[in-house]
Each structure stands twice: as C-alpha cells, then as structure tokens.
Amino acid sequence: MHPWERKLAAASGASVDVGSWISAVTQCPELTPGKLGLWKSALQGSQCITLIRDDVLLIHRVTEDFFGSLKGYGKRVADVKECKENFMTHSGQFHRARRMFLRVTVKELQMILADEPGLLGPKALFAFMALSLCRDEINWLVRHAENVTKTKTPEDYVDVHIAELMFLIEEVRALVRNNLPIIQRYYLQYLAKFDALILSDIIQVMKKKQTVSPCAKHGDMSVFVGAHGLHGPIKVNVSV
Predict the structure, then answer these.
(1) 185-236: per-residue pLDDT in tens?
(2) Could you read off the pLDDT of 136-169 as tens digits, one per residue?
C-alpha cells in the first residue's frame, strides 16, 4: 500500500485541552454534538485547571454556576453534574492505570529506539506521542493530587513511581535530540520520493481538467515538486 493511501491513526489518545473546551462552550453554548462530546470528555477528565502557582479553577463549580445563571440551559447544568459524578467515580482509576501502562510501554519504546536509533525515522511520531501522553499524565496528577479531597480512592491520586515516568521522558527526549539527523534525512527522502510524486500526478490530472490556473496554483505546485527532488533522487549530506 502506498504511504499516501494509508489511513491515519485514530486520535483517541490525543491530548484534550480542558481550558479551550470549557472556554469554547461558555462563549458559544450551542455546540454541535461532536464538539459537545469533546467538551464532556474534558469535564469528565479533569476537575481543576491551574491558573498560577497554587491557584486553581474548579471547572465543574464555575461551569455549573455559569449555566445556572442563564435561562433555558438547565440541560447543560445537568450535563455538568453528570460529568462531575463521572470524574469522581472513574477518572482517578483511569489515570492511574494509564500511568502504569505508559511506564511499561514507554520503557519498551526507549529500549528499542536506543538499540535501533534508525527506527526514529519512520517511528518518530510514536516518540512524540509518548512524550505528549506522559507530560499530560504528570500534569494531571500534579493538578489533582492536592485538590481532590472528597474521594473514596485517595490512592488514585498518589503515585510513588512518577519519578520513573519523568526519567523516561528525559531518556526519550535525549534520543530524539541526539538522532535529529536521522529524522531529518528520513522525512526529506519521504517528501521527495512519495509526496512529491503523488503531487505531480495530481497536478497532471488537474491540468487535464483545466481546474488550475497555469499562472497561479499550478505554477506554485510545480515549483514545489521540482524543488523537492522529483526529477532525481534526493541527496542529503547528513553525518549521523
């Protein structure tokens, strides 16, 4: 299968910016079902946002008060209460299990990349995903460890192994920094041998259909194709 025909991985593990979604729904309460689902996920995953130093914003309380002051938004208040209950019941256990999973998985990833640094070319995205997920879990624990008091499972908000996760972050970051030439060379060659080729085919099809102006878009894309090694193999002088 050609690289440009591969399906993108699902974004189920993507980071949820709690502040952005809370702000979005308060400014425009009438959200589409898809965006509303993301907003609910944000409320179910976090109870507070750090404002500055030790000052935090309790998002369920503030959001509930906001919608309670508006007429006709009783359903939103009920949604907030439901999300809060879901957070208190499931979120701590979920994040504890996620940190355990990341410790094992990221350690394996670090060992593989240290043994075979050439894999950082095609698998760089996995390294960045690991760093992002570990960062989110550490930030989540720091935010909630001292601000979740009414819980039946306080052990979910204490992690004596958090230092190991931080250590793994530094190890993966060091691998990425030390092997940047490998990543750069891989994606330069990928751009020239795959993206530029398929873009050339697209230009030819559009040219035949006369859907692109020769003096505008077509010219710009042709320059891009030529500049990225379409007419010959790319030569990258990178010392690894």
Answers:
(1) 998 888 777 777 777 778 778 777 765 555 455 555 555 555 555 444 444 4
(2) 999 999 988 888 878 888 889 999 999 999 999 9
Residue type, 230: L
pLDDT at 188: 85
- What are the residues whose beta carbons fall under 8 Å from the beta carbon of 166, sequence distance 6 or more? 134, 138
Nearest to 39 by CA among 26, 27, 15, 21: 21
Mean pLDDT over 129-137 rounds to 94
DSSP 8-state class, residue 47: S
For residues 5 and 119, the model is more confident at 119
| Residue 157, both tokens | 């908000």
Residue 2 falls in which region: left (phi positive, over 0), alpha (psi -120 to 50) or beta: beta
Using alpha carbons only, give the angle 42, 158, 156 rounded to the nearest 5 degrees: 55
How many C-beta atoms surround the C-beta of residue 84 within 10 A? 20
d(CA 74, CA 67): 7
Determine if residue 233 is left, alpha or beta; phi over 0 gives left, psi from -120 to 50 gives alpha, anything else beta.
beta
3-state secondary structure 56-74: EEEHHHHHHHHHHCCCCCH
Whole-structure pTM value: 0.72
What is the DSSP-derived secondary structure letter of residue 90?
Answer: I
Structure tokens at 31: 């959200």
Calpha distance 50→190 (Å, rounded): 41
